[in-house]
Amino acid sequence: MEKPKNIFITDKESNIQIGKDIISNLISSLTGNMFSFSLGLMLLNITNSPLSFGLEMIIMPLVNLLFVVPIGNIVDSVAHKKIIISSLLFRLLALFILSATIGFFKDDYLFIPITIFVTINTICSNFNSTAYSASIHEVVNQSHIQKLSSFTQAANSLSAIIAPPLGMTLYSLLGFKWMIFLEIFASLISFAIVLSMHFHYPPRKTQFNSIPKENTRLTSQIKKFSSGLKYIHKQKLIMEIITIGVFVNFIFTSLTIGMPYIILSNLHLGNGPISLLESGSSLGMLFGSLIIGIIPDKLSMKTKLVYSLIPTILSFICLGLILAYVKGYLAITILGTLLMVILGFSVIRLNVTTQVFLQKSVPIDLLGRVMSSITTINTSVMPIGTLIFTFMFAHIHEGAWILILNGIIMLAYSLWRMTKI
């Protein structure tokens, strides 16, 4: 199987493509986050349901599981630019339909059109992100892959910082219907930018014009997808990355659930520290993405994993210690925010390192199936972790000790797995 090659793409064209990608991602992620935030606010205001902000967390793992086979196969069988354009068009169509029909639903019945839209949007996003991950080597040359991945993450992190306050302001001023129109307008701009980008396909990519007929049957689809799983199974480093990633993602759900719960319910400090700690994480991700895009890529994969994973886990443990022992609103807010900056920095370094490694090492004709499989495996543990840790935090008053013990377990497990690489 052939490794990814970029012999057609110059440094100048790579930099132009990176600029277009950054602009497209900044626009789409900013308005997308604003739209999601305003959608949650709208549902919460009208239905008063705690599910308002958790609908996507339920739908996303289910969609990933149901569509993992077709997404992986299609991404490896169809030209990536066609998939990205098609997913953007279907999402635009879903937005138009939502704007035309949402007025017919009242109160709890609003969950009907919103659930349908979120499902379609998640499917489109999965196709888009998987095709994008598999196509990076077709957009820039080998030496620019890390820069593109890191700057894309930087755009997403910047959007995560700006989107909540901006989305809340615009939603209060304009209402949800105009937020839909804003998202449609932004999606059209991103669509135009993607159309202007040049995807360089190796000669054998000409087979991507359509899905082969023999793969239209379910059994053939599964057989084709299983070849991607067999490849993953044979690659020891990828298997170790997945094993560590699944465990870390599972443990990290305790932070996502526990940090706000401990601050609000155990320490009674209000919403202020929660928003600042969340902003600290996004700020760390932004700094990390920018720095990774500048520094040279010379370290071994194992060294990068160690340098990224250990600070992440240590900041996780230290945050638990601060929530357990430090007293005072100001002290917890300042120290907690600083630790979340470090944690965000380390997490984004870990994510970019893994993404770049896969994009550079996995054969071209397997990238879609490999990326789709890894995404599904990682997200599949989120609902399980959410249920388990929600129950634990509800019944254990000293919730900070859950974070501390989880961090220690995660540290011991990760160090043990590192010895296997």
UniProtKB/TrEMBL annotation:
<feature type="transmembrane region" description="Helical">
    <location>
        <begin position="58"/>
        <end position="76"/>
    </location>
</feature>
<feature type="transmembrane region" description="Helical">
    <location>
        <begin position="332"/>
        <end position="352"/>
    </location>
</feature>
<keyword id="KW-1003">Cell membrane</keyword>
<feature type="transmembrane region" description="Helical">
    <location>
        <begin position="237"/>
        <end position="262"/>
    </location>
</feature>
<feature type="transmembrane region" description="Helical">
    <location>
        <begin position="88"/>
        <end position="105"/>
    </location>
</feature>
<dbReference type="Pfam" id="PF07690">
    <property type="entry name" value="MFS_1"/>
</dbReference>
<protein>
    <submittedName>
        <fullName>Transporter major facilitator superfamily MFS 1</fullName>
    </submittedName>
</protein>
<dbReference type="InterPro" id="IPR011701">
    <property type="entry name" value="MFS"/>
</dbReference>
<keyword id="KW-0812">Transmembrane</keyword>
<keyword id="KW-0813">Transport</keyword>
<dbReference type="InterPro" id="IPR036259">
    <property type="entry name" value="MFS_trans_sf"/>
</dbReference>
<dbReference type="GO" id="GO:0005886">
    <property type="term" value="C:plasma membrane"/>
</dbReference>
<feature type="transmembrane region" description="Helical">
    <location>
        <begin position="180"/>
        <end position="201"/>
    </location>
</feature>
<feature type="transmembrane region" description="Helical">
    <location>
        <begin position="399"/>
        <end position="416"/>
    </location>
</feature>
<feature type="domain" description="Major facilitator superfamily (MFS) profile">
    <location>
        <begin position="238"/>
        <end position="421"/>
    </location>
</feature>
<feature type="transmembrane region" description="Helical">
    <location>
        <begin position="373"/>
        <end position="393"/>
    </location>
</feature>
<feature type="transmembrane region" description="Helical">
    <location>
        <begin position="305"/>
        <end position="326"/>
    </location>
</feature>
<feature type="transmembrane region" description="Helical">
    <location>
        <begin position="111"/>
        <end position="134"/>
    </location>
</feature>
<dbReference type="InterPro" id="IPR020846">
    <property type="entry name" value="MFS_dom"/>
</dbReference>
<feature type="transmembrane region" description="Helical">
    <location>
        <begin position="155"/>
        <end position="174"/>
    </location>
</feature>
<feature type="transmembrane region" description="Helical">
    <location>
        <begin position="22"/>
        <end position="46"/>
    </location>
</feature>
<dbReference type="GO" id="GO:0022857">
    <property type="term" value="F:transmembrane transporter activity"/>
</dbReference>
<keyword id="KW-0472">Membrane</keyword>
<feature type="transmembrane region" description="Helical">
    <location>
        <begin position="274"/>
        <end position="293"/>
    </location>
</feature>
<keyword id="KW-1133">Transmembrane helix</keyword>
